[in-house]
Structures
1.
Amino acid sequence: MTAAKDVLRYLKHSILGGPAGDLVGYCDADWASDATDRKSQSGFVFLLGDRPISWRSVKQNLVATSSVEAEYISLSSAVSEALYLKQLLVELGVASKTVVIHEDNMGVLHLAKNPGHHDRTKHFDVRLHRVRDYVSSKQIGLVHVRSQDQLADGLTKPLKGVMFAKFKKALLVGAC
């Protein structure tokens, strides 16, 4: 772990050039996208300033019964990564702030920000309450992002043309 911290300190002071900006995330899901088993695809990306530092694209390990549930599974995973990255930055001496995660599903934002019992969410209550706890404690902030501005979209499904070019540019990916 010490070697990893040394590398990150080097990056912080050389490539990143000192303070790098806020840690922000984007998460998305493509509901029931696998035609063989109807499992959804999750994706998230975290940026420090305008530089991607962590990303993941993974097939969900259970079948979501709605797009909201699929998005919430993705959000729960993104929250775990955000908390890990936040702690890593604290260990590197970077001030800890609320990590803002961008989400394009209004239903997910409503559930995460509004405590109370929702009959249609009983089957994923543990994830729901866990995310709510971090939102209410201001460790995680959630904001709506338009679907066309969702940086994690390309981690959940193939993109074409302009959308693919925009995705590559946002993630600082060179020519493929």
Note: The chain has five helices and five strands.
2.
Amino acid sequence: MADSIPSPSPTPPRSAADLFSDPLDSHPLWFKPTAFLSRDFDSESYISELRTFVPFDALRSELQSHLSALNHELIDLINRDYNDFVNLSTKLVDVDSAIVRMRAPLVELREKIEGFRGSVEASLVSLRNGLKQRSEAAAAREVLELLLDTFHVVSKVEKLIKELPTVPSDWSTGDANNNMMEKASSINNGLSLQHAEVGTNLRETQSMILERIASEMNRLKFYIAHAKVSQSLSLSLSFTHSLFIQNLPFVENMEKRIQNASQLLDASLSHCFMDGLEHRDANAIYNCLRAYAAIDNTGNAEEIFRTAIVTPMIQKIIPHDQLGVVDGASTELESDYRLIKQSIQEDCKFLLDIASAGRPTEFLRNYKTSLDFLAHLEGYCPSRSAVTRFRSEAAYVEFMKQWNLGVYFSLRFQEIAGALDFALSSTSLVPVQNQSPDGGNLTLKQSLTLLDSLRSCWKEDVLILSCSDKFLRLSLQLLARYSNWLSSGLAARKKVDAGSNPGCEWAASAVPDDFIYIIHDIDLLAQEVRGDYLRHILQLLSSCSAEICDSVKDSILHGGNSLSDMIPQVISTIIEALAEKAAESLLDGERAAAYMNAEVKSKLISGAATEITGRYYELASELVNVARKTESSLQRIRQGAQRRAGASSEISDNNVSDPDKICMQLFLDIQEYGRNLASLGVEAADIPSYCSLWQCVAPQDRQNTIKRSLDVPEPVLKETETNSSPCDLDA
């Protein structure tokens, strides 16, 4: 194979000039042949540019060499395509006439293309004009829709103001109404309560309508501000310039109506707020405060509260005509301060309870209502950036700071975790008395409390989604607390002083049956945590990302698995308890025998043997009778099948039947049992139930040989006879 490969041809020797000199076709760096191919090539400028740094002789020689190279290339090309050059003259016949014939269609085609180009440009101009008019029309339509919305909102505000419930007289006649109600109460208490209820409903209805009006006024302010922005953006449009040049006359014409509605709202809201403060109507006050917040006029609410509550209270406690306050006795000043504190407690503190976390249920209801109100306001924001700016406002931030979610969670933590700690601090396992449908068939109070605590973390009236991470941590802590309670109790049970460990007393007093209940509850709790409980949490957190949901799922499953991991420890504890119980019974029997004489001991042994033998006979006889009845039924079925098949019914089965096997096994057992009784000093043949048992299971040839059989050990049976096993007895 090596011979078939041709050897490379030797390379010709290279001279020193080829190695150390420039190639023959190389040019100096200043000479570029490609420059001659440029469209804007100018020979004079080219030569004048090169002569500034290249000698004339060198330039001439280089150009001549390049010319000779081009001539050589031309000759090579002609020689390569010589036939084509020779035939070129014969093929180029009547070239001028062909050019004339082609010129006319080309000119016509050029004219058509120019015509199409002009029409396309005209269409483009028309399209641009149409788009411009369309954008102007869209801007004008937006302004018109804005004006229509403004008109509708103003009309709606005026309609709502007219729908305000009226009172018997002016808003400020609260004292007269109170006097009338006091007189009515002296006549009829039931009628007075009815009037009071009507007044409360009237104030609440007024406050709710005023809150709606305030919301619409806030919407109206938004439209007006948006109109000003639209005006500044539309000044460059020729179509809408005339519409906005006079500063939205349509809005200017409605300014008077808007001002009247705003004044009526301020007056009505002030009177309703004062009336609510006077009657301490929390719902009316809360609605009025939300209305003030909607129109961004909280200063007016503060001024009304200062005028209606604070000023009269201070004037009542410290009159202006009272002199010598500074120079008077210190007890008078202390009395004044005490009265001020009392007035604040009675008349002002209920306002602070709105945002106070001291009452978690009311706090959560008010917090969710406030968030719903803020979400309603955010609905008017046209974009996400507007929502971000709205949330970054100082008023928004200050309002959210009033809701102390940390304190709320701390109170809920104490409430939920405290209930579980109280249940686990019991010194014994408490069974569930009245099982509720939500209890899941739990048997112990401690387990039921854990399930209730876990569910409380994710109830609608407890959970705040912004604190869901804290409630998840609380759920896992509850599971860990329950597992630690079990493990510490089981570990303390193994110690001698188990009852001395706080929180582990239940394990010292628990019996094996109690641990069975614990296993049952652990199974149910683990299934609930990994099942419905996990699905409920994932449903509440469905708005979160998939990564967060997976982390929550893994943590909950880990908590459920930690409960299941406690079952082997509980089973081990049950086994140890049973073993200890058996050992205690054995020791007690040995100690009791030391205090009994032979006669008493003989009576106890004889009586116990008689009772045990009687029960032994009942169980064995029932087992044998059932086996014989079953065998008889099977025998009849087999005989019927043989007759239908035409076989002889006289053919008998030589195999040992199941009842015979059972009797053989029982016969061996009672013989050994009789010998054990004899070793204790009890004569088995003297026990009637033993004789009956012998007659039941003994073979026909051994029916009357009880004493002899007990004296002589039974020989080993043949393989055919000992073919039965304890499994046959169980069958």
Note: Residues 95-162 form the longest helix (68 residues).
